[in-house]
């Protein structure tokens, strides 16, 4: 029988670290990954047949739950008509219409194949449009692995403690100014100093990649004002938050219109997708209407469009966000009670159906405070939850996600698992 252990051994000989994306290797929790054979609804199954309640959600996309019947049917139907044409299709127009209708700030959109491609292209477009070279990003925000953006990034880079990455030319990294999230004064000073050279500010409006962190009141509003008055483009990276918190983006909730928006994850319904869009006068600078080059052999792929369109239509028609929000709130509150009873200080940051438990007593408002979290304790917690068949991200700097497929029963099982896990955690007095 194939086991996760045997597959991992084989994988490590053929694939660096045995995985095609670093955090999947479970290194931060000093474990080895399970290999998945299938997933359905709220559950995911490994090759040994073990069943887990899944809160990783493929790192965000699976808001309808795994292998949703309508999405699968749409993919099958599309596949029967061919898998790629390298020519425009009706589905791409429909996808563009759905996205532009859901986001008031997006007048035009272009599809790509990943979130990384979306942010990378948006940055190039911002530089091409403004004729400026520098960009501002925030520490702990992750925008994919493009060279300009892999400076003090969150997610796997934070998990593995990599400050930047070899292979990124220093001359390029110098063009990226990295500032602490939620600190508008540092933005003002940077803009005072380099204003004329700054093409864009890119931000996750609610970061999910240092764990979930909320913008303090006024932070995003001030970013909008400062960028507008200095001819800097504001880019919201809503790759996670797009269609996660409401039908549209966090920008709809915040009432702020960025110049450009990056999307991915949910809009692909579990297939490889990204997109970037925004103001028409900026988007028309892209080839073939403009000089900024950007292209993709598989962009707007018919299978990905079918999965994405079906997902968005279901989200639009059923609009169950309120219920999802309520369910997640209940789970978080009950978990907090369990930790309180055990005397382990934690902070749960939640936005809609995404949340992170930080093992710290202090408020988490930026990467500095997130990284003060007790990672050893997180590691123990992760292992205990995993042993109790609850699949959460193997890193302190990630979010957990609920889906529409998570039922009350799943929540209760999760709470029981949490209570059991806490019995086996070292009590805080022993833990340094
Ligand atoms: C996941 C993510 C990306 C990168 O998307 P990929 O599809 O993994 O390339 C970019 N930005 C944010 C906010 C993300 O969460």
Strand order of the largest sheet: 4-10-9-8-7-5-6
**Name of the CATH first level of the largest domain:** Alpha Beta
Task: Return the domain count.
Answer: 2
Separation of the first and last Cα atoms: 42 Å
Approximately how much beta-strand content do the residues carry? 5-15%
Description of the molecule:
The protein is of the alpha/beta class and 432 residues long. It has two domains: 4-67 and 320-423, Alpha-Beta Complex (Aspartate Aminotransferase, domain 1); 69-317, Type I PLP-dependent aspartate aminotransferase-like (Major domain) (Aspartate Aminotransferase, domain 2, 3-Layer(aba) Sandwich). Helices cover 38% and strands 14% of the residues. It has 15 helices and 14 strands. The protein has helices at 4-14, 69-80, 90-102, 115-130, 155-159, 170-173, 184-194, 219-229, 250-254, 280-283, 302-318, 321-342, 367-370, 375-387, 408-423; strands at 36-40, 43-46, 51-54, 108-112, 134-138, 176-179, 198-203, 233-237, 260-264, 274-278, 347-351, 354-358, 390-391, 400-401. A seven-stranded mixed β-sheet has the order 4-10-9-8-7-5-6, with helices on both faces. Helix 2 packs antiparallel against helix 11, helix 7 packs parallel to helix 8 (219-229) and helix 14 packs across helix 15. It is globular, with a radius of gyration of 21 Å. The two termini are 42 Å apart. The model has no long low-confidence stretch (mean pLDDT 95).
Give a nutshell description of this structure.
The protein has 432 residues and is of the alpha/beta class. It has two domains: 4-67 and 320-423, Aspartate Aminotransferase, domain 1 (Alpha-Beta Complex); 69-317, Type I PLP-dependent aspartate aminotransferase-like (Major domain) (Aspartate Aminotransferase, domain 2, 3-Layer(aba) Sandwich).
